[in-house]
């Protein structure tokens, strides 16, 4: 018999960011907590502690995991067996990679929401010194919550740093006086998606790749034109290539080749490593390169091209 699905509410962020306070506020809110048995997994201990007995009739249990290496399928399966709860809240250590947790989640644990909590007073320092760990948490978070915000903070700068990683997350600002504000700054794309041909300049590939990955359907049937690197493997289907660019999100260590499946006419042939300029019609369909459905480029024109001045695509 399969186990019941347990919703997981994940809170990420660095030490003293305010994760414990937010979890406590959530448990004290009758709109969220109407007495469901809840397990709280703490992956770090800050100055503020969560009191399991402070939430009325609700059964709240706490489990401490002190080391990243202790997060394993066996450990979490043991926790799952030890508690009969309706949901789980996890306060995750900002110094630990999220992949560690997601790889260890029991099959019946489903992450319903992942919220990143950021102390606005220390954000710039953490972002400058630990950008890769910051990006690790921002990438999949919704929402991103800035707390301890001062009235004179540079909202545009904060906004751009978050949007360089994720266009889809909600950004929330909580001011020191208690005021809460939603970020409603619009982010126009650096290219015209409504043009007859969507032309992607060399410096805009990262934005194009992210946007089409987040919402491929809006590109279906559109003509696109951009420059990319070819990869051709013997395992690829006939006339199918990968065409894309190296993208860097935060630092040299995270540079990754991000490409699309491209179907070229039989009279065209390129080799791995070639830079090409392509024009193609986007079709959302199955491809072996994705292992499922994704944006497939049906190429109408292609020619060899010179390497861009900045071969690695970046945001900003």
Structure write-up:
About 20% of the residues lie in helices and about 35% in strands. By secondary structure, the chain is an alpha/beta fold. It folds into 2 domains: about 180 residues, P-loop containing nucleotide triphosphate hydrolases (Rossmann fold); about 120 residues, OB fold (Dihydrolipoamide Acetyltransferase, E2P) (Beta Barrel), CATH 2.40.50. An 8-stranded mixed sheet has the order 3-2-4-1-5-6-7-8, with helices on one face. It has a 5-stranded mixed β-barrel with strand order 10-11-12-14-13.
Query: Number of folding domains?
Result: 2
Order of helices and strands: EHEEHEHEHHEHEEEHEEEEEE
Helix content: 10-25%
End-to-end C-alpha gap: 51 Å
Counted by DSSP, the helix tally is 7
Strand content: 25-35%
By CATH, the superfamily of the largest domain comes out as: P-loop containing nucleotide triphosphate hydrolases
List the helices and strands and how they pair.
Layout: E1 6-12, H1 19-28, E2 38-42, E3 60-64, H2 73-82, E4 87-91, H3 98-104, E5 109-119, H4 123-129, H5 131-138, E6 144-149, H6 155-163, E7 171-175, E8 180-182, E9 197-199, H7 205-214, E10 223-231, E11 240-248, E12 256-263, E13 275-287, E14 292-304, E15 312-314
Which features characterize this protein?
316 residues; alpha/beta; Rossmann fold; OB fold (Dihydrolipoamide Acetyltransferase, E2P); 2 domains; 7 helices
């Amino acid at each position: 018999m399969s186990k019941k699905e347990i919703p997981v509410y994940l809170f990420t962020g660095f030490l003293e960011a305010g994760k414990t306070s937010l979890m406590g506020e959530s448990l004290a809110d009758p709109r969220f907590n109407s007495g469901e048995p809840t397990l709280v997994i703490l992956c770090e201990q800050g100055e503020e502690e969560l009191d399991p007995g402070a939430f009325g009739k609700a059964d709240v249990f706490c489990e401490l995991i002190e080391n990243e290496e202790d997060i394993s399928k066996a450990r979490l399966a043991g926790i799952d067996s030890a508690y009969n709860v309706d949901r789980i809240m996890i306060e995750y250590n900002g110094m630990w990679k999220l992949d560690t947790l997601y790889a260890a989640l029991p099959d019946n644990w489903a992450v319903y929401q992942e919220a990143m909590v950021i102390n606005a007073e220390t954000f710039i320092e953490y972002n400058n010194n630990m950008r890769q760990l910051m990006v690790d948490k921002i990438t999949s978070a919704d929402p991103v919550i800035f707390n301890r915000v001062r009235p004179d903070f540079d909202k545009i700068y904060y906004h751009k740093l978050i949007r360089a990683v994720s266009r889809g997350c909600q950004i929330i600002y909580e001011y020191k006086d208690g005021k809460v504000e939603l970020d409603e700054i619009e982010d126009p794309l650096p290219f015209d998606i409504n043009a007859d041909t969507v032309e992607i300049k060399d410096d805009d590939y990262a934005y194009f790749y992210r946007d089409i990955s987040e919402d491929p359907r809006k590109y279906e049937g559109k003509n696109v034109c951009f420059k990319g690197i070819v990869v051709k493997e013997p395992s690829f289907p006939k006339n199918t290539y990968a065409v894309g660019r190296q993208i860097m999100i935060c630092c040299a260590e995270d540079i990754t080749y991000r490409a699309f499946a491209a179907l070229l006419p039989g009279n065209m042939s390129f080799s791995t490593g070639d830079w090409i300029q392509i024009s193609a019609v986007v079709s959302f369909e199955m491809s072996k390169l994705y292992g499922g459905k994704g944006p497939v480029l049906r190429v109408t024109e292609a020619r060899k091209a010179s390497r861009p001045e900045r071969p690695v695509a970046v945001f900003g």
